Amino acid sequence: MRFSALKILKEGLTGNRGWAPHWRDPAPKPEYDALIIGGGGHGLSTAYYLASQHGMSNIAVLEKGYLGGGNIGRNTTIVRANYGLPGNSEFYSHSLKLWERLEEELNYNVMHSQRGIVNLFHSDGARDAAARRGNAMINQGDDAILLDRAGVRRMLPFLDFDNARFPIYGGLYHPRGGTARHDAVAWGYARGADQRGVDLIQNCEVTGIDIENGAVTGVQTTRGPIRAKKVAMITAGRSGQVAAMAGMRLPIESHVLQAFVTEGLKPVLDTVVTFGMGHFYISQSDKGGLVFGGDIDMYASYAQRGNLPTAEHVIEAGMALMPMIGRAKLLRSWGGIMDMSPDGSPIIDRTHIDGLFLNTGWCYGGFKAVPASGHCMAHLMATGRPHEAAARFRLDRFETGQGLMDEEATGSQHNLH
Ligand SMILES: Cc1cc2nc3c(=O)[nH]c(=O)nc-3n(C[C@H](O)[C@H](O)[C@H](O)COP(=O)(O)OP(=O)(O)OC[C@H]3O[C@@H](n4cnc5c(N)ncnc54)[C@H](O)[C@@H]3O)c2cc1C
Fold first, then answer.
1. What is the mean pLDDT of each run of 10 residues along the chain (417 residues)?
2. CB count in 10 Å sphere of residue 400
3. Of 11, 158, 225, 346, which is most buried with the most CB atoms under 10 A?
């Protein structure tokens, strides 16, 4: 079934009785060519690109809950390509290009909106850093405009420009950045993978990884054993637990990150804004809610909910930046489990076990990475070689110390990435 304006019109006039489920609900087969553990954004996009780019359709995605129930459906939906370091820079640039043709490719409305992002800065030093980052973005072929204080005021007149502690000096504007509807991204990739023959198996928790003579042979699940010569661990905040099934200890800490949304308001904020003096980022959803977030909760946890002091901390930052937010009623908050790597950059790599692959370490920024992550992971799994855009995302950099990509220059302090 293809979606089109004509189809919507027809269904609207005939009681919406012709819509089919977006994907099948197959029982697991005893054996596949490849298995993907984790039905989040990265697992689903990997499955989609394995099938669409490499002709591998005898594969299954194994999801312990329901598709899109993890971080992919919990994030604040910001999409951008504004990284400064080699490695990250080309990867997120690649991802943004994939975003820009995603809806046509998937025939699915993921509501990708290039409404722009303004990263504010509040000191001369921060302006220099923003200028350097902007130049790196332009060198990479992406877009960046350095705004002065007046330029920011023209775009965002309601910010607190007179705040004595955090005066706004200007902002780095990235017009091609923006947002997308997060769960639609999971659904679009799931539908695209299913249409190409991939089995999406929900309520199927992987409980063990079978290894013989240094090579993976399959997995144990709550729905029985499944054999495969290629297995990818793509479980974000649960990566440490899943990799432990293969005897691996990952350089990953799992932390809670909360997000918040207010009641629906009339359009007020037509771009994404990030505060430069604290961790706070905000946009307005198409339904009108102000969607915002801040720091992780600062303790390792597998709970998908956060604590009140962090909520207070985030909202204080919001009040410092745009005091009008205090008039809005907070509707909901929730949490996700973040896979925090020591340098704040991800891992897309094979492991020391033949046929076993790893994709993790997305920290605060894995939503925007979903297209490129799946694209590069599929390339690695199908060809055995890393994709050039993800060649630096190696696991062994944490052992050797070579090739670390510490974008924020914060050392291995997870909360600061
Ligand atoms: C509050 C919040 C805000 C965020 N904001 C942004 C943002 O604005 N922009 C941005 O780029 N990024 C953002 N992120 C980060 C981004 O959402 C994540 O990096 C990304 O979604 C993680 O990858 P994923 O989608 O594959 O993870 P998930 O959706 O978590 O997928 C992993 C899946 O693996 C499954 N799984 C785990 N263990 C097993 C097992 N044993 N067997 C089978 N399945 C298993 C889980 O159930 C889960 O569905 C945010 C994250 C959070 C939590």
1. 92 94 97 98 98 97 97 97 96 98 97 98 96 97 98 97 93 98 97 98 98 98 98 98 98 96 96 94 96 94 92 95 94 96 97 98 97 98 98 97 90 73
2. 9
3. 346
Say yes or no: CB of residue 176 within 6 Å of ligand 1: no
What is the predicted pLDDT for the residue at 409?
82
Residue 29 Cα to ligand 1 middle (Å): 26
- 76 in contact with ligand 1, CB cutoff 6 A: yes
Q: Whose CA is nearest to atom 3 of ligand 1?
A: 75
The domains of the chain, with CATH numbers, are: 5-75+183-250+343-416 (3.50.50.60), 112-177+253-340 (3.30.9.10)
- The CA 167 to ligand 1 mean position distance, Å, reads 35
142 contact partners, CB below 8 Å, separation of at least 6: 81, 82, 93, 96, 174, 176
C-beta 233 within 6 A of ligand 1: no
Check pocket membership of 70 for ligand 1, CB cut-off 6 A: yes
Q: Which atom of ligand 1 is nearest to the CA of 221?
A: 42
Ligand 1 within 6 A of 366 CB? yes
Which pLDDT value is given to residue 278? 85
State the pLDDT at residue 411. Answer: 80
Q: Is 260 exposed, middle or buried (0-12, 13-18, 19+ CB in 10 A)?
A: buried
pLDDT at 415: 66
Q: Tell me which residue of 200, 180, 233, 177 sits closest to 73, measured CA to CA.
A: 180
Task: Count Cβ atoms below 10 Å from residue 224 Cβ, excluding itself.
Answer: 11
Q: Phi and psi dihedrals of 69, rounded to 5?
A: -85, -5
Q: Determine which residue's CA is closest to atom 50 belonging to ligand 1.
A: 75
Q: Is the CB of 243 under 6 A from ligand 1?
A: no
